[in-house]
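Task 17 of the worksheet. Students: predict the tertiary structure of the chain below and write it out as structure tokens. Keep your answer in the requested format; marks are given for formatting as well as content.
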Amino acid sequence: MAYDCRRADFFTDQLMAALRVADRGDVAIPDMRGAWAGEMGQTQFMPKSYYQFAVDFDGNGRRDLIRSAPDALASTANYLRGYGWSGMSWTNGANAAALAGWNKATVYQQALAYFASRLVE
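Model answer:
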């Protein structure tokens, strides 16, 4: 995708980030399988987000968003916090910017907000 002329700069940055994730020892390159646009792991991080927000929550020395549920969930929380998630209810509008930073598609923002509201019921 880095050679796709439509978004070469974006995907070249993603490729370099994926190599940094591998170099850091979090995931081996053969294990970096993902969706069509390059998302990796249980909560579908792009490589730049993986490199920036992934945390080692299970304490094994690696940030493994593919095989470690604790790492994946804690990293997702860290990601949302990085985009301004306040920890308050989404219904008051406090987290609208965080949801928009997480995903530009309104349908995904609404789905996450709906799921969050159901969790507190």
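Marker's comment: The chain has five helices and no strands. The CA atoms of residues 31 and 108 lie 26 Å apart.
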